[in-house]
Specification:
Elements (H helix, E strand, L loop, with lengths): L1 E6 L6 H4 L7 E9 L2 E8 L6 E7 L4 E6 L9 E9 H10 L4 H13 L4 H11 L4 H12 L7 E7 L3 E7 L14 H5 L7 H7 L3 H11 L9 H4 L6 H26 L3 H8 L2 H8 L1 H5 L1
Parallel strand pairs: 1-8, 5-7
Antiparallel strand pairs: 1-6, 2-5, 2-6, 3-4, 7-8
């Protein structure tokens, strides 16, 4: 079974993906999401930093594949990675969800001859795409829910489905016994990059910012993460100093961790300069 997962933070870059080890990526492309805002909200399990989250204004979540040659139009953009179930289990563990619970859901999907994402979409549809009732259904089926990230289905064009990990907020995790990290830290809304830096002006947070931003090397629009940086001169200086070297290394790092060929990569993402311009990185560094 293959699974397509949408990365909205450090999963957008080879720098960030390397944390999970090498993957066998079957396909990768850029996906834009409707009715969303991206920022930082969930205190990480892996350091003194906040990780990204997506604030969804309207469920169900829907998106479409975008070409890095097309102009960015302001939607939140993510990196789609299609991987085998075993590799997906590594990403599931990284995101703070249970690989065992995910395998249970995958087995139920197999019995219905559906992909995992299609199966979860149908569960969500059965509760009228209410995210809280959906999480309760997952808890009923697996006996597990997470205070960190929970997989949610996304419908792509052409009746294709993907999964994205969203951090539960004050609306709940699906179990009264499991309090979300955002509830524990009282983070109600996603924060901008500069606001996050004011809370966590440290090396862990800076490193995480870099892992998200170099996703722009692949043509992903990261201007929503860059727009507030100029509000903090210290952060601006740090990023403008560190980003050029990280950008230089990102292509080779991404190919190494995804096991994609250069030919397959070039066919999907196109010329480097075009990617850097589209993402907003070129203008930011100027």
């Amino acid at each position: 079974m293959n699974v397509t997962v949408l990365g909205h933070g450090s999963l957008m870059s080879g720098r960030g993906l390397a944390f999970s080890g090498a993957l066998q990526v079957k396909d990768t492309f850029v996906v834009a999401l409707k009715h969303c805002t991206r920022g930082f909200a969930k205190l990480s399990r892996y350091g003194d930093r906040f990780a990204t989250d997506i604030e969804v204004q309207q469920f169900p979540l829907e998106g479409w594949r975008v070409s890095p040659s097309a102009a960015a139009n302001g939607e939140v953009e993510t990196l789609a990675l299609t991987v085998f179930l075993d590799d997906f289990s590594c990403l599931v563990k990284r995101e703070g969800y249970s690989p065992e619970a995910m395998l249970r859901l995958a087995e139920l999907a197999r019995k219905e001859k559906r992909s995992l994402a299609d199966f979860l979409w149908r569960i969500q549809a059965s509760v009228e795409h209410d995210p809280v009732r959906y999480r309760r259904q997952l808890f009923v089926l697996t006996g597990f829910t997470s205070p960190h990230y929970i997989p949610h289905p996304v419908r792509l064009a052409g009746e294709r489905y993907a999964l994205i990990f969203l951090a539960p907020g004050f609306e709940g995790t699906g179990s009264e016994a499991v309090l979300s990290v955002r509830q524990q830290t009282e983070i109600r809304a996603v924060m901008s990059t500069s606001e996050t830096w004011r809370r966590k002006p440290n090396d862990d947070q800076l490193s995480y910012f870099l892992s998200c931003l170099v996703g722009g090397v692949h043509g992903i629009n990261v201007q929503d993460l860059l727009v507030s940086v100029c509000e903090d001169p210290t952060l601006l200086a740090f990023l403008q100093n560190r980003l050029p070297q990280e950008i230089q290394e990102e292509d080779s790092r991404f190919l190494a961790v995804t096991n994609l060929s250069q030919e397959a990569y070039d066919k999907t993402f196109g010329p480097r300069e075009r990617r850097l311009t589209r993402s907003g990185l070129r203008a930011f560094l100027k």
